[in-house]
Records
---
Amino acid sequence: MSTKIRELLADPLDLPLKEPFKIATGIKDAAWNVLIRVVLEDGTVGFGEVSPSPYTTGDTQGTVLAVMEQLRPSVVGQDIRHWRRLLNDTRKAVRNQVGAHSGLEIAVLDAFGKARGISLAEMFGGVRQSVETDMTLSLGTPEKAGEDARKFVGEGFRKLKIKVGLDVETDADRIVAVRDNAPDVEISLDANQGFSPKDAVELVARANARGARIGMFEQPVRRDDFEGMRFVREHCPLPVAADETVFTPEDALRVAREGAADMINIKVAKCGILGALEIISIARVANIGLMIGGMMESKIGLAASVHLACGFGCFHHHDLDTVYLLKPFECEGGFRQEGPHFSVEGITAGTGVKYDPT
Ligand SMILES: [Mg+2]
């Protein structure tokens, strides 16, 4: 069996959403993703995916395709058994551009796992076989939030994440509508940097005064406002999570030093697999909690996050619902979905993803 890389392929993967998804930074009705394939000489294919988020990561489908073109000479002809050396080199060949690196890292590790007969979840430690994801409610009216909450609870979800960040009064009404329609769910909030520190605190106070019992608040303020993050943390009776604030291990270290968050949201699309491994270590030694999220990946890319989460078993909150926001998408392997439960049981090689784009 030859473990040399014969080909690196990158192709547009355009995926429509079930319904437009609105957050504080914009609205999206399709995911303009990139499918990445690392093909070994024996025909083994490792699959990766990038879901570019121009506002958040600065990547677009076009930049990811261009970077993959640039990386091809550093990848083709390399031996997959030396995956870390290969990925250290590709990180050096093109700085930043983490979206492209994340997709390549997923594909390389999938190929490695398939070539060596080990699942990624086992490679990462095999702590758990399954995780439970939340479901995210897009920005909208209080009525729509209440309706969505009822629908998702009917589908088995026990954790709902409400997008907020435009207007304190409407957001408080939306949170209360969710609580009224789903009295037993765990509620978390995500403002995607939309609030001032004072407005963020005000929203939590108003919603909790009306019985909302919010469990966690993600990225209430601007990504670079470390002091604002700490202000919200100190004035709200709940954990504050840093999402857009943390892209790199250096960002995670700064959050730890400045006490800017109780939790860090790791997304493979923000930091790649290599970055995720380092951020996990930093957070654990700094006694900071961990959650894991996604951009708008299909099962192809999301599988890596599910395997990472199962393998480490260290995440307190799983926000991996992107497969439910996209229109149903045919792809073999990856993980098994049963409502909010994602299981890697039975996956014996890589992420197990098999997909034919033709
Ligand atoms: Mg977020």
---
Amino acid sequence: MVEPIDVAVIGAGAIGRTHVDTLARVGGMRLSALVDPSPAVAALAESTGVPCLPDVAALISSGLAQAAIVATPNETHLPVSATLLRAGLPVLLEKPVAESLDSALKLIAVADETGLPVLVGHHRRHNPIVRAAQQAIRSGRIGDLVIASVTCSLAKPESYFDARWRCTPGVGGPLLINLVHEIDLLRHFFGGIVNVQAIASSIRRGFAVEDSAAVCLTFENGGIATLVISDAASGPWAWDLSSGENLARFPAHKTTAHHYAGSRGALSLPDLTLWLPEDEPDWTRALHAEQLPVVHGDPYEAQLAHFADLIRGREMFPHVSLRDATANLIVLDAIREAAARGTRVGVDLSPLQGLSGTTFNNGTIP
Ligand SMILES: NC(=O)c1ccc[n+]([C@@H]2O[C@H](COP(=O)([O-])OP(=O)(O)OC[C@H]3O[C@@H](n4cnc5c(N)ncnc54)[C@H](O)[C@@H]3O)[C@@H](O)[C@H]2O)c1
């Protein structure tokens, strides 16, 4: 029988606790330590029966972990992950890959130097709903993407912002924290994004960082999408609030958040309803709704199983690589720049293409 991999969770806040709970359910891995300087984590350490260490240096000298999950604030992703990788520990790193392109590129260089697996925590990619949608889209069932709309209404309570990084410009805000998931999915489904336009607003909360934004994207095939997001708007129309993928944290409303209309038919998510015409598309004739089949599963569990396979060498390529996640960040940077300048901004992926060893396309990178 194969011994479980000892895994440390670095940063035991909101999502770190999801990883702790998930580790208790999956086989092949076990929680071996928590790393967090916050005194609030002592009770969790006690209930899970593992030591809580103050920093990654203490973890490395303890020898307690063979791999790590990094769930710390965005601006710490580079220093924390680089230290772990240099000490020989594979990393599952929460999204966004980093707070800035510069940090993300530095992290890619460290990961390439060590050759160790790094998986970025765009967990939705491990959701069977996303797999079924991608298969339907890529096999042409809705034709070419013409238009898409994504809504993300996430009324976060005041206490959410006690963690000040979440409302610090350049580090937090719903674009970097939440919209990056939507960008990842749209790239995964429809390929490269070539330019963006955006309006950002901070009127509802009055923070220095945005609380709401409206974004327009143009894809390589000419398809266009609009995305609206707010962490101050109350509504059920958000992936997090309708997919049921983290029921410990969020309700699962029976509604939709993503709508894709193609040259042949349409698809809504996360309910996986496919709308197809009987013959040629014609707005005067009824479309038929069909439910795409899916066996629901927990994406956080599947993500950890994939991480274990990468560590054991059973899989060679992460489903979400550092380069892929950095492409998401480049799109996010273009959105932030477009909102600040009030103009259309091109998505420039050349910083990734210049890197050695990069096999790169503008959609999903293997
Ligand atoms: N994939 C998802 O579904 C998802 C959901 C939420 C957050 N996230 C991402 O996870 C990360 C954490 O977000 P959160 O909302 O859980 O944050 P949080 O503020 O709730 O928790 C962060 C924890 O990290 C600790 N910490 C800070 N610096 C540290 C360091 N250097 N070493 C060890 N611990 C440190 C803090 O004390 C805190 O307990 C962010 O990158 C966020 O974008 C991902």
